[in-house]
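A further point concerns the way the authors explain their paired sequence and structure data. Each protein is reduced to its one-letter sequence and a matching series of backbone shape codes. An entry of this sort, consisting of the sequence and the corresponding backbone structure tokens, reads as follows:
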Amino acid sequence: MRALLWYQTTLLLRSRHVLPPALLHLAVLAVGFSPGDPILDSLAVNAAVALPTAVWLTWACTHNEPPAARSCTAAAASPRRAQLACLLTGAGAAGLLAGVCCAAVALLAGGHAGDRATAVSRLPALGAGLTATLVCVLAGTALGALCGRPMLRGRARAFLLALGGSVALLAAGASPANAAVSELVRGNQDGTVRQPLLPLLVVLTATALVTALACRRAERGE
């Protein structure tokens, strides 16, 4: 598996697919965050944009290989393991980008709530921000797996599902991503740091199920 992950990471870094989601993430932060802004609100922005970033990177990892190379990889390592490596690479890339941005935001943001009078401790806030970011990355990875090969081959349909799904996951009240981001927003209002552990448990279960489904589909062939 280590060799597969290294191979998929190399493909992603060499492809043209890695820059657009990274630039999207940084552009949203540049617009939605300024040094000195309330820390929890700023971390909520980073967590929210991590979801479409993860969708894009996961989808990209499932499309990086040419058909012939994909067949060789599947023959050498099994289709299930090859698909799992794609999804883990996408999730890892999104998690690394969002995690670094989360730490930078926590360092540069103001240690206060939205009223700018209530103090908010940076370390607990960073922990909550990282947890919310992980929830959004996992939700985005699951959606990206559903949009990518072998689950969905048409690029137009994949784009529509990715766009609509990202909006739904961030806006729907029942979504763990929405719940995690909302915890940060509520904390920004009253100055209380809340760890979104229940949304994390839910999204871990859902992402594991989607990953298993995608790997099973890969084993059956496209």
Notes: The radius of gyration is 18 Å. The chain has nine helices and no strands. The chain has one domain: 18-220. The chain has a mean pLDDT of 91.
